[in-house]
Design a protein that fits this description.
12% helix, 112 residues, mainly beta, five-stranded antiparallel beta sheet
């Protein structure tokens, strides 16, 4: 591990997560919707001091300079691969998969 930092991740409807670790990778996606609303998704992958993995997803909407968090969620796993189901296959998740290389498998559909 490199430099360790203290993190606090707020989660909707669940206890917040507090841990010491490092950010391994992140991904972002922005969508401009009708009525001037911008929806942003941020995903981050952390590795904790105790060698656990934490996945975080934050979805925000912005309108007329006001930002509102729509969803804040996180999941913990003892393997990085265990978090792929949590991240899913959205654009932000795909950007994360590309940024972390072989740490997380990149979900692909194979057609013969």
């Amino acid at each position: 591990m490199t430099k360790l930092t203290a993190f606090l991740i707020e989660r909707d409807g669940e206890p917040d997560l507090q841990f010491t670790g490092e950010v391994v990778g992140c991904g972002f996606a922005h969508d401009h919707q009708a009525g001037g609303v911008t929806r942003s998704t941020m995903v981050r992958l952390f590795r904790t001091e105790a060698d656990n993995w934490i996945a975080e997803i934050v979805v925000r909407e912005e309108f007329a300079g006001m930002r509102n968090t729509v969803r804040s969620a996180a999941s913990v796993s003892d393997t990085a691969e265990g978090l792929v189901g949590f991240f899913g296959n959205g654009r932000a998740a795909k950007a994360l998969y590309a940024s972390v290389g072989s740490i997380l498998p990149r979900p692909c559909l194979f057609i013969e």
